Amino acid sequence: MANSKYEYVKKFEVDDKLPPHNWIVVRIDGCHFHRFSADHAFEKPNDERALNLMNICAVSMLEHFPDIVFAYGVSDEYSFIFKESTQFYERRASKLVPLSVSYFTSVYVMKWNEFFPDKELKHPPYFDGRVICYPRAKIVLDYLAWRQVDCHINNQYNTCFWMLVKSGKTEQEAQESLKGTVSKDKNELLFQQFGVNYDKLPAIFRKGSCVYIEKLEETVKLDDSGNPVKRLRKKVTVGHFDIIGPKFWNEHPYILEEEK
Amino acid sequence: MANSKYEYVKKFEVDDKLPPHNWIVVRIDGCHFHRFSADHAFEKPNDERALNLMNICAVSMLEHFPDIVFAYGVSDEYSFIFKESTQFYERRASKLVPLSVSYFTSVYVMKWNEFFPDKELKHPPYFDGRVICYPRAKIVLDYLAWRQVDCHINNQYNTCFWMLVKSGKTEQEAQESLKGTVSKDKNELLFQQFGVNYDKLPAIFRKGSCVYIEKLEETVKLDDSGNPVKRLRKKVTVGHFDIIGPKFWNEHPYILEEEK
Amino acid sequence: MANSKYEYVKKFEVDDKLPPHNWIVVRIDGCHFHRFSADHAFEKPNDERALNLMNICAVSMLEHFPDIVFAYGVSDEYSFIFKESTQFYERRASKLVPLSVSYFTSVYVMKWNEFFPDKELKHPPYFDGRVICYPRAKIVLDYLAWRQVDCHINNQYNTCFWMLVKSGKTEQEAQESLKGTVSKDKNELLFQQFGVNYDKLPAIFRKGSCVYIEKLEETVKLDDSGNPVKRLRKKVTVGHFDIIGPKFWNEHPYILEEEK
Amino acid sequence: MANSKYEYVKKFEVDDKLPPHNWIVVRIDGCHFHRFSADHAFEKPNDERALNLMNICAVSMLEHFPDIVFAYGVSDEYSFIFKESTQFYERRASKLVPLSVSYFTSVYVMKWNEFFPDKELKHPPYFDGRVICYPRAKIVLDYLAWRQVDCHINNQYNTCFWMLVKSGKTEQEAQESLKGTVSKDKNELLFQQFGVNYDKLPAIFRKGSCVYIEKLEETVKLDDSGNPVKRLRKKVTVGHFDIIGPKFWNEHPYILEEEK
Is B179 helix (H, G, I), strand (E, B) or coil? Predict the structure, then answer.
């Protein structure tokens, strides 16, 4: 029984290879997570367990997909950067995006109980995902800065908002109080009304999370002359740094190295 | 603190709306499921529990995404057909594919224990997903026929192969025996050597699974004159039919109705 | 001297095959033709010679590219419809559009002198071009109707506008007079003020131009018994019909025949 | 009379903006120019008039489209490089390609008589055109090197081939003689058999043609103190240089300057 009579339908499939010499960013974003976080009673403005669950998923991603060189996460969103020269599935968008989002989702559900042993999943968490190509390392840095600035703006606002609400205001009133305030005003408000120094809040809330390969030199043994024999060990690492300034990147120049 | 300095990076995002007046097919496919099924000791050639798990995921999909009008699954693959006129997320491919594959994955992991209470997930199951546009109902039917013919060819081969292996042949020998055989030869082999009538094997193996909305007329009550008051009830239904011939489609003309 | 070191740059080329089973429309549109027609003193509101030049270019297109089954032109724009099943250059957009627009342009310049022997080209006429895929004959008809309605609306407006200007009004005043008028008002205005019956104006202005293959049965000779021997002759034909209603299409069912 | 009923057909048009921060290359290529050059008796292996006509078209392109920063032509092909930051027609491929190819074609036909006063156009010359995006200046240089290497390989082969043919060999025999020869062999053949030093042949044949903006400093007048008042004059210039090595690019660093 030949299949050929119907095989013409394959011709409708589209080639969607992404252009070479571009970093590929896959950004995953929780779908209806506003409701999902309400239904699962996430803490406000930040639920540390939920963030740690997102982070462990991202760590799994870097362990499973070796061409991901960096990931940055905030709230229910995570960006994964595939290295410029990746040939993963021939750079086909129809592979990179679904595989990333599906693997992430799978780990999220599997690890849920580890992070929320007291809560059962009430409905399936799921994520959308988009792919974007960036032609230069410099623009990838700007992309990451864009996400981290967003993290800062949202977190500062949400911190104020929930402080006000917890202090007795209605959500409506809290919103009104914050209308038109700039960053400095919000810091003042936190300090004056609640004695909170924004800059002392946990970095995971203020800076989001970075996942990357740390290259560690470690002494394996001593050689016959008693000198240390060293080895480079690669370790997927989570941190909460400033990635807008150059410091982190100067210390990790290999992460976004441009091809010659 | 304005975000605008970095916001230019959004310009790299691509508009990927799918063309109007086309049926949209999203096909999900297990990634490395050969290994996944081995690691979880799925029965050969077909593991009914694994198929039922796939089917329950597909049912969840139709319940959750109302614009999916039909789904067809075989082995670790499932095709979902969105209706011609769907405006779901403005027909953006970057939404339809990741959301479908992520939701499916999420349900798969959540329901795993229900179907395999005796087996723990050893590693995350995950799926790829592609989108294809078909401009006419007739071609969607050909697409489905293509998948069902594939199901038949693979299942018949695998049934023979595993019968031979279970009867004592090596996998190598089984493969050799089947080289060059046509459909009829395989049916003969099954009947002669193993007393198996292929056509009597469970339809779920031979035909794959269809998920769709069945419209059932049911009597709600009797009216004052004693006549039945009827109501149309919609029910997501799983079946294992021939979808190559016209019978099923004639009985369910509303599923792939073309827009006027 | 091997070229291979640099050949990687070919990988940046994109596959742009258009989807099968869609009619392909290439629409050509004069670029800066407002200025071009002013510089070459085209008659207002319609320059018959300019329209005839456009039409002769379209005729050349149908003679040169056999997969074009219909063309519709109005003003400085022309739409060419490639048949649903065309395999012309494997349906690659990067071939169909540039070749169409380039061939059209080439003929336009070559034939200019034939239509405007008294005018020299002052600067190069040129056209843009876009490609659109339509999945059903019915939608192609709607596309053509869209263009012909546009032709009607513009021509009626322009006819009034230039009548008013030629009668002594300024362009500003003419514009004011027409603000808010509907189709019927404009017909009244033409009749009352200028004694013009709009429906009697040349069809080429009111209806635009259609170019297509007319199949003519002609008698070649008489056979031995004196009966006529007939032959089907195909002839590229220009006409100015209504293509919104069904009449023309009923008489020429072969033009937009859908594949089975 | 509203047009809205049909306007839905516009939804089938596709957004095709090219990604930011990429150089855009539009490459134009003569269609069926093998036949076109035979029909118009172009000289072999190179027709200098035909090349000069191509070059004048390219010059017109740079004069007309100010965002083209460089053009490179060989035989019946020309590549136009739009600057990295061009916003010409919002970087829409459906504008850049057709407009480029149409304008080029228009000038080609208009200027034909200037270059071939003795020959009439027998049929319309036309060109295809494709667009390619390159994310870095370095890759644009490799693209240009790819084309110039191609020019060299083809020209050397064709020079030998036509020398052999003109010396009495059949085309078949000439082809045989050249089979398997490398660059050095061909130079030897030209020198030994025909006394031709390949490197002394006109650069336009060996190197192709570059069109670019030369920035010239010129003295406008003397000021009151008798010192020269200088001005930067921009001039579209044609040259036949090596563009594989760094010399030309070092002298014209502004042409492919990368955005900061």
Answer: coil
- Could you give the CA distance from residue A42 to residue A36 in angstroms, rounded to a whole number? 9
- Best residue in B28, B59, B63, B126 for a mutation probing chain A (most A CBs within 10 Å): B126
**Which candidate from D11, D12, D20 shows the least CB-CB separation from B12?**
D20
Chain C residues in contact with B259 (beta carbon < 8 A): none
The residue ranges of every structural domain in chain C are 17-146
Q: Give the tens place of pLDDT for each residue, A47-87.
A: 999 999 999 999 999 999 999 999 999 999 999 999 999 99
CB C239 within 8 A of CB C218: no
* Residue A65 amino acid letter: F
| A106 within 8 A of B57, measured Cβ to Cβ | no
Residue type for position B43: E
Q: Domain D18-148 is of which CATH architecture?
A: 2-Layer Sandwich (3.30)
How many helices and strands, by DSSP H and E, does chain B display? 9, 6
Nearest beta carbon to residue C139 from set B21, B133, B139: B21
**H-helix segments, chain C:** 33-39, 48-64, 93-115, 137-166, 171-178, 183-194, 203-207, 247-251
Q: Quickly tell me which residue has 């099923």 as its tokens.
A: B248
Min Cα separation A139/chain C (Å): 19
Choose among D3, D107, D133: nearest Cβ to C124.
Answer: D107
CB contacts, 8 Å: D259 with chain B? none
| Mean of pLDDT values over B95-101 | 97
Contacts of A133 in chain D (CB under 8 A): 19
How is domain B19-146 classified at the architecture level of CATH? 2-Layer Sandwich (3.30)
Q: Smallest CA–CA separation between C21 and chain B, in Å? A: 7
In the predicted structure, residue D4 carries a pLDDT above the cut 80: no
Which helix H or strand E contains A204, and what residues bound it?
helix A203-207
Q: Which of B95, B132, B149 sits opposite A1 (nearest CB)?
A: B149
pLDDT tens digits along A15-55: 889 999 999 999 999 999 999 999 999 999 999 999 999 99
Q: Which 3 state secondary structure label does DSSP give A197?
A: coil
CATH code for residues A20-207: 3.30.70.3000
pLDDT in tens, B195-231: 999 999 999 999 999 999 998 888 888 999 989 998 8
Question: Is it the case that residue B73 has pLDDT exceeding 80?
Answer: yes
Q: Measured between alpha carbons, how far is B109 from D210 in angstroms, rounded to an integer?
A: 61
Task: Give the closest-approach CA distance of A16 to chain C in angstroms.
Answer: 8
Task: Report helix, strand or coil for B201.
Answer: coil
Per the CB < 8 Å rule, is A21 touching D133? no
Backbone angles phi, psi at D152, to 5 degrees: -60, -50
Q: Collect all residues of chain B within an 8 Å Cβ-Cβ radius of residue C136.
A: 21, 135-136
Span of B66-75, C12-21, C75-84, D38-47 with lowest mean pLDDT: C12-21
Integer CA distances (angstroms), B178 to A131, B182, B186, B205, in order: 44, 9, 8, 19
- C13-29 exposure pattern, b = at least 16 Cβ within 10 A, e = fewer: ebebebbbbbbbbbbbb
Contacts of A239-242 with CB under 8 Å at 24 or more apart are A239/A209, A239/A210, A239/A212, A240/A202, A240/A203, A240/A204, A240/A206, A240/A207, A240/A208, A240/A209, A240/A210, A241/A203, A241/A207, A241/A210, A242/A148, A242/A207
> Mean pLDDT across chain A, nearest whole number?
94
Task: For the beta carbon of residue B149, count every other beta carbon within 10 angstroms.
Answer: 18
CA–CA dist C149, D160 (Å, integer): 60
Q: Which amino acid is at D10?
A: K
Predicted ipTM? 0.94
Tell if the CB–CB gap between C130 and D105 is shorter than 8 Å.
no
Average pLDDT over all residues of chain B: 94
C17-146: what fold?
Alpha-Beta Plaits (3.30.70)
Number of other CB atoms surrounding residue C142 within 10 Å: 18
